[in-house]
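Pipeline run #58 for the internal structure catalog. This entry was flagged by the ingest filter as a single-chain record with no existing model, so it goes straight to prediction. Upstream metadata was stripped on purpose; only the residue string is passed forward. Reviewer on rotation: M.T. Logging verbosity set to normal.
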Amino acid sequence: MTTVAIIDNGGGNVASVRFALDRLGARSIVTQDASEIAAAERVILPGVGAAPEGMRRLAAAGLDRLIPTLSQPLLGICLGMQLLCDGSEEGSTACLGIFAGTVARLRPPGALPVPHMGWNQVDLCGSSPLLAGIGSGDYVYFVHSYALPVGADTVAATDYGGAFAAVVSRGNFHGVQWHPERSAAAGARLLANFLSLDA
């Protein structure tokens, strides 16, 4: 049974991520303990909220130094993905520097509301085993006001008055701007793919 360390970073989606993993038969622990995170077969960095507070919590636990050194598969979800980037416009926050680029506030034209909340489609634009069985046009669930521009690490994008990175991958690090734990079949498939990635 795969053991997943879910980093306890104060996000309200931790319980739903854990339930989603339970349904897939994975054993998970919620922790800020560096030794438990380093020993886990998989690591998930979830998050809901603001980048400055998210980075403050990671730094307080010493995880800002640990996370970039991990060699097992790691998945950032929503704010967790954003914290893996170089930085965020939100509070001019320096982040973990794994994915290139600065997370920017969504500024869609016209009357599109921010936050971007609800179901939207993904458009595959790269190759990643994380996306096996997920196709362009599949719907997934978003709740966010900031996003990473499409860049070299983007393997799927979403359009909301302009394209942004919906899924990024670099080596053993992966991120999704959407919530797989709330995205029905596509979300379950992505999490199952994550559990199956080569360590």
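catalog note: The helical segments are 14-23, 34-39, 51-60, 63-66, 79-83, 184-196.
catalog note: The radius of gyration is 15 Å.
status: ready for reviewer M.T.
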